[in-house]
Design brief:
The protein is 31% helix and 22% strand. The protein is of the alpha/beta class and 362 residues long. The chain has one domain: pyruvate-formate lyase- activating enzyme (Alpha-Beta Horseshoe). The protein binds iron/sulfur cluster. Iron/sulfur cluster binds next to loops. Iron/sulfur cluster is lined by residues 102, 104, 106, 109-111, 164, 196, 230.
Length: 362
């Protein structure tokens, strides 16, 4: 699954699920029906479920089950818990979920182990209800306001915690609706999303009012084998440029930073490419987020079953165990590796993207 050809990668970057499941309650929402109409217009099979349970039956063969789940989109109603927003440090004050799951095939995917069950993608039909609670959280976050580089952004809302919303946008329109929603606000707030996809055309003409920051989630070209089904990095950078020209604040999420052999050359080339792609833009509002690769026993087990041939190193080499504030453990790079990565990246960012503000390192 890692070795997708460039042509397949580009096709996959415009996702077309094999089937769309629609629960009964989801069909009662105009946004849910609009998603189904777009899917039907593209000739995608629609399965109208009699109730609200997905009742998914997948093959016993884990590879086939994975493939079927990854090619399935479900239109559902988000549970009430999605309307009680959770803090999401260090990315943003609050997490706002437009969907859950992603059609791509990254062999480090951070969703593995955190989402239960087969990896189908669920999009939420009750988008208006989800967005409707966001004003209640204005001024309540503490993550952004404590960071001097971010204090001008107001309360921040992250839409990419459990999905890549741009990957789904052609079918859902959810991201456009969220951008327009925040664009209408007369308050200090920011919607944020990060993406490994590149089809930003539907977003360029929206009345965003500068209240949405798109970040391109990038890794070196040399690591494309770890990011099956995503858009090529060069396209992501060009998408970011288009968004900046359309007046959006933008950013790079360099994630996950992988200390594979030759990482200095690989990340140096990535930053050179980013510098070229974003050159000549006046009043560029550019941020950078730096997130190192990590995993835990649960996510490693899931990823090993999904991508058994992956060459991504998840051995104990260069790793230490870190205990989280929730009492769980994760494997992160050891201190020497972390220091080398951080020093290198911060220096190169200062050289290639001198106006960029680094928001955090983790
Ligand atoms: Fe996971 Fe992001 Fe890759 Fe999707 S694009 S598979 S969410 S890492």
């Amino acid at each position: 699954m890692e070795a997708l050809s460039e042509r397949t990668r580009t096709q996959a970057a415009t996702w077309r699920p094999r089937r769309v499941l629609a629960t009964r309650s989801a069909r009662a929402f105009a946004h849910g029906r609009a998603i189904l109409e777009r899917a039907a217009a593209r000739g995608i099979e629609i399965v109208e479920l009699p109730g609200d349970r997905l009742n998914l039956a997948f093959p016993d063969d884990p590879r086939r089950a994975y493939a079927e789940a990854k090619s399935t989109l479900a239109v559902v109603v988000a549970p009430p818990s999605k309307r009680r927003l959770q803090p999401i440090a260090p990315s943003a004050d609050w997490r706002v979920d437009l969907a859950e799951g992603c059609p791509a095939h990254c062999s480090y995917c951070y969703l593995a182990g955190s989402l239960k069950g087969p990896p189908i993608t669920r999009v939420y039909a009750n988008l208006d209800e989800i967005l409707g609670v966001t004003p209640d959280y204005l001024g309540q976050g503490t993550i952004t306001s404590r960071n001097a580089a971010r204090s001008s952004e107001g309360t921040t809302f992250e839409a990419s915690c459990y999905t890549d919303p741009l990957a789904l946008e052609a079918l859902t329109g959810s991201l456009s609706a969220a951008i327009a929603w925040f664009g209408r606000w007369n308050a200090e707030a920011q919607l944020r999303f990060t993406s490994k996809f590149a089809d930003v055309e539907p977003l360029l003409g929206l009345r965003h009012n500068g209240r949405t920051r798109m970040r391109a989630s990038v890794n070196p070209r040399a690591y494309a084998r770890f990011e099956g089904g995503t858009a090529p990095v060069a396209q992501r950078l060009q998408a970011l440029r288009k968004m900046a020209i359309a007046g959006y604040p933008i950013g790079l999420t360099i994630a996950p930073i992988i200390a594979a052999e030759g990482w200095q050359d690989a990340y140096g080339a990535l930053l050179d490419d980013a510098g070229s792609a974003l050159s000549g833009l006046a009043e560029l509002d550019l941020t950078v987020e730096l997130i190192t690769h990590r995993y835990n026993a649960g996510s490693k087990a899931v990823l090993d079953s999904w991508y058994p041939g992956s060459s991504l190193d998840m051995t104990e080499t260069n790793r230490v165990t870190k205990r989280t504030k929730f009492g769980t453990e994760k494997q992160v790079y050891d201190t020497a590796t972390m220091r080398a990565l951080r020093t290198f990246l911060e220096d190169r960012i200062a050289q290639t993207l001198p106006t960029a503000r680094i928001l955090y390192w983790t």
